[in-house]
Design a protein that fits this description.
The chain is α/β, with parallel strands linked by helices. 49% of the residues lie in helices and 7% in strands. Bound molecules: flavin-adenine dinucleotide. It catalyses: cyclobutadipyrimidine (in DNA) = 2 pyrimidine residues (in DNA).
């Protein structure tokens, strides 16, 4: 029999659970559906979409070598998926459909409709856990609830991982050639015209590229990851996030290679390796949170009481932050990195998110949205988790009184101002001594028109936000 394999955020042929299972069951026809309007509603960035659609071209070639034909069809919204998939299955006399699970609330609803449609038509519809090591809902506390605290979640996950290894699956074998010709709608979307021009210089596509990135990171960087990962001037992290988000590489492949470099261990051994695996578990944690607490998928804070924080919507402040013109060099350099490359270093994501929510007291959802609109690795769970952590509205979030001082963060994590100078050319000539607070130097050298004065006074802003959170506590 023949089956449809519906590709979504799993754009690879190696270690792809649904593809592997479909191929084990019979002949396979692959399908990819475009939903530009829906993606835009989700604020998926032109960078991310362009990157993923380019990867789709690569995937098409790889599937071709396996004799798996690919059907590409453009729609508007998710609710058009079920009917089309069912009629396609019927048209090609398929016995059913296979796909890997996604966890946003709209994705879950879409997939439920698809399951129902196939069920009613008495056709198989099988979906798989593939993005994650463990299915959301299988890691719970003793009361049967989802964990809200990362360390507890991780402890439980590690218990499970010590019993069931999660090994990558092989690439399916070449199948017999199917004698069909499928339509392929154009992948050119106007929406992608706004992507950065050097997208593929920063983020070359391809499964092989992703595997090479992983291998290079494991060979050269992972051992020192713990010491170096917080310094944005050094490329000390894996930069695999766009590949993980698009599913060009799998979580099992990452974990397996890291464990192999650590004698099979994940919780002990080389600290750089355990530290990196710990980050992979944060990714896991936030996706489980998305399923356990769907309000976070609907623009709601995880902590309902923080709904009452009087966040501001000041558009001038927002614009200064977005354009990297706040007068805080580390914040500005970070924001310009985001706009120029579609990616931002993790330490900087925390700094700019904390700055937007605590120094500017702007609504965290404005920051979350702007990130999604630019990130090539934009992921609802991780992005929302990161933003709600910074805003102190989330699960296991930063306690509201622990507020980053952006200047101290800058001194600590970009001590030579190397990163700042890379992205803020106006500060190129500023000596190291002044780089974190350049205004006096600029003034003395009559360069004050070249770079903004700080848009906020950090200590005053700190008091303001502390008092807002305290009022909330008192009212409770
Ligand atoms: P590495 O340090 O090499 O880590 C390896 C992988 O682990 C990453 O590729 C990523 O998949 C995962 N990971 C690492 N840190 C985290 C984390 N804190 N939460 C969840 N997963 C993590 N990550 C995204 O993938 N997409 C996002 O949209 C996103 N938005 C964020 C927004 C904010 C405000 C913050 C604070 C963090 C956000 N992160 C997001 C998490 C993190 O910043 C990125 O995953 C990381 O910077 C990617 O770089 P890397 O691949 O070199 O990471």
């Amino acid at each position: 029999s023949t089956y449809l394999m519906w590709f979504r955020s799993d754009l690879r042929i190696s270690d792809n659970t649904a593809l592997y299972e479909a191929c084990n069951n019979g002949q396979v026809i692959a399908v990819y559906l475009l939903f530009p309007e829906q993606w835009q509603q989700h604020d998926d960035s032109p960078n991310k979409i362009k990157f993923q659609l380019a990867q789709l071209e690569d995937l098409k070639q790889a599937l071709n070598e396996l004799n798996i034909p690919l059907l590409i069809k453009k729609f508007h919204h998710f609710n058009e998926a079920a009917e089309f998939l069912l009629s396609t299955a019927k048209q090609y006399q398929c016995s059913g459909l296979f796909f890997n699970e996604e966890y946003g609330v709209n994705e879950i609803n879409r997939d439920r409709q698809v399951h129902q449609a196939f069920h009613q038509a008495q056709l198989t519809c099988q979906s798989f856990t593939d993005q994650l090591l463990f299915t959301p809902g299988t890691i719970k506390n003793q009361s049967g609830n989802f964990y809200k605290v990362f360390t507890q979640f991780k402890r439980k996950l590690y218990e499970k991982l010590s019993v069931v290894n999660r090994l990558p699956l092989p690439t399916p074998a070449k199948q017999k050639k199917l004698n069909i010709k499928l339509t392929q709608d154009s992948l050119a979307l106007d929406y992608c015209n706004k992507a950065i021009t050097k997208l593929f210089d920063h983020w070359p596509i391809g499964e092989t590229t992703a595997q090479q990135r992983l291998q290079l990171f494991i060979n050269d960087k992972i051992v020192a990851y713990q010491e170096n990962r917080d310094f944005p001037a050094q490329p000390a992290t894996s930069q695999l996030s766009p590949y993980l988000t698009a599913g060009i590489i799998s979580i099992r492949q990452c974990l397996h290679v890291a464990r192999s470099a650590n004698l099979g261990e994940f919780a002990s051994g080389k600290s750089g390796i355990t530290c990196w695996i710990n980050e992979l578990i944060w990714r896991e944690f936030y996706k489980h949170i998305l399923v356990g607490f769907p309000q976070v998928s609907k623009h709601q804070p995880f902590l309902a009481e923080t709904q009452l924080i009087p966040w501001s919507n000041d558009s001038d402040l927002l614009k200064a932050w977005q354009q990297g013109k706040t007068g805080f060099p580390i914040v500005d350099a970070a924001m310009r990195q985001l706009v120029a490359t579609g990616w931002m270093h993790n330490r900087l994501r925390m700094i700019v998110a904390m700055f937007l929510t605590k120094d500017l007291m702007l609504d965290w959802r404005l920051g979350e949205k702007f990130f999604m609109q630019h990130l090539v690795d934009g992921d609802l769970a991780a992005n929302n988790g990161g933003w709600q952590w910074s805003a102190s509205t989330g699960t296991d979030a930063a306690p509201y009184f622990r507020i980053f001082n952006p200047t101290n963060q800058s001194k600590k994590f970009d001590p030579q101002g190397q990163f700042i100078k890379q992205f803020v050319p106006e500060l190129q000539q500023v000596p190291i001594k002044y780089i974190h607070q350049p205004q006096d130097y600029l003034q003395q050298n009559q360069l004050h028109n070249t770079y903004p004065i700080p848009i906020v006074d950090h200590s005053q802003a700190r008091e303001r936000v502390l008092s807002a959170f305290k009022q909330l506590k008192e009212a409770k």
